[in-house]
Q: What sequence folds into this?
């Protein structure tokens, strides 16, 4: 993803929130950030996803618009995150029509991104954008058994590894110019490698996953508190900026390695990263409101994918009450006319034009959270 300025969350009172730049101010009222007394339901999860698709899905392109104006498609890497969401819904519902949508989104990406031609440096302009798709393609293969998805994932992984991996000092560069090694490429590489190892049984993928994770732990992970650095440039110190997706992919990478190796040190890393997110990034319980009308609005949708992996695959149910408070707050503060949710869970979703990025995370949380 592009490097963007992060905007801190304002949880209690927002005056003059405006989702459309250059338009009039939409006044906001003070809202209650405490969770609903009645928790969200599976029916709510269905309604939230239906609304997201109603306002953002382009059935012709089979991909998602960037905003409710439906004037252009969302960023290339975020489409992979929305594909993950579609897979979450299928796993939750086992609905045949949802499986059709999962396959349709693959087709949309195939048509839009030169048949997943990883050598096309116009469609693909940074390695981490590719790796989000590589991880999603591997997951889609696991979910559907489709051999084409697996082949595209393998081709993408090999391409990124050949261009991004540093054989001298380790780690993965996030861009073609090798300007830095960011969390957003290193931890997703681990996730992709583990998925490919699970599908193929090829030990080389496991070795690569361990290698990149080891580099990331030494260079991007604060072993004292679980904070994940955003990047490391050359031999300089790690650049620490708090982003939920970096915390999330670090958690996911660690949990997945724990599952395939049974090495408890990986699980301990995942818990430490989750604890940092909960205790240091959420002073008022709610996750930070990333994404001031930019692509960072999708970051918490990524976090949702992997924190729930820690709960389910890592057996760490202690995070569920915290996550439920976030979901309930975000759903309570939805735009009740459109059923759209917002990046800032502590304020009402503004009317007017909003981005698919900032509307995506609560919907994702609702699909993966265990609810009746």
A:
């Amino acid at each position: 993803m592009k490097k963007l300025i992060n905007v801190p969350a304002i949880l209690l009172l927002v005056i003059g929130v405006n989702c459309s730049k250059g338009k009039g101010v939409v006044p906001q009222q003070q809202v209650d950030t405490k969770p609903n007394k009645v928790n969200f339901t599976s029916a709510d999860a269905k309604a939230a996803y239906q609304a997201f698709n109603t306002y953002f899905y382009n059935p012709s392109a089979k991909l998602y618009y960037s905003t409710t104006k439906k004037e252009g498609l969302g960023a290339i890497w975020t489409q992979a995150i929305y594909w993950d969401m579609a897979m979450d819904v299928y796993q939750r519902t086992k609905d045949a029509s949802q499986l059709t949508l999962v396959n349709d989104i693959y087709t949309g990406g195939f048509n839009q991104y030169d048949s997943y031609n990883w050598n096309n440096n116009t469609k693909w302009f940074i390695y981490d954008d590719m790796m989000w798709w590589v991880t999603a393609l591997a997951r889609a293969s696991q979910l559907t058994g489709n051999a084409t998805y697996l082949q595209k994932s393998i081709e993408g992984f090999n391409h990124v590894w050949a261009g991004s991996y540093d054989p001298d000092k380790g780690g993965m560069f996030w861009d073609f110019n090798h300007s830095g090694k960011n969390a957003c490429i290193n931890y997703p590489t681990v996730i992709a490698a583990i998925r490919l190892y699970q599908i193929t049984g090829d030990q080389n993928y496991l070795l690569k996953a361990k290698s990149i994770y080891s580099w990331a732990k030494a260079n991007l992970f604060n072993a004292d508190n679980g904070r994940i650095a955003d990047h490391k440039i050359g031999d300089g110190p790690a650049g620490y900026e708090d982003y939920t997706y970096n915390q999330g992919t670090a958690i996911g990478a660690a949990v997945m390695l724990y599952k395939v190796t049974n090495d408890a040190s990986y699980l301990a890393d995942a818990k430490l990263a989750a604890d940092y997110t909960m205790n240091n990034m959420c002073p008022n319980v709610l996750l930070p409101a990333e994404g001031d009308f930019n692509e960072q609005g999708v970051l918490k949708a990524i976090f949702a994918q992997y924190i729930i992996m820690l709960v389910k695959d890592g057996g760490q149910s202690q995070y569920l009450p915290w996550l439920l408070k976030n979901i309930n707050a975000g759903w309570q503060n939805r735009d009740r006319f459109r059923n759209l949710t917002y990046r800032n869970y502590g304020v009402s979703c503004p009317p007017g034009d909003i981005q698919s990025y900032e509307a995506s995370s609560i919907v994702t949380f609702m699909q993966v959270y265990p609810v009746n």
About this structure: Residues 2-36 have pLDDT under 50 and may be disordered. The radius of gyration is 19 Å.
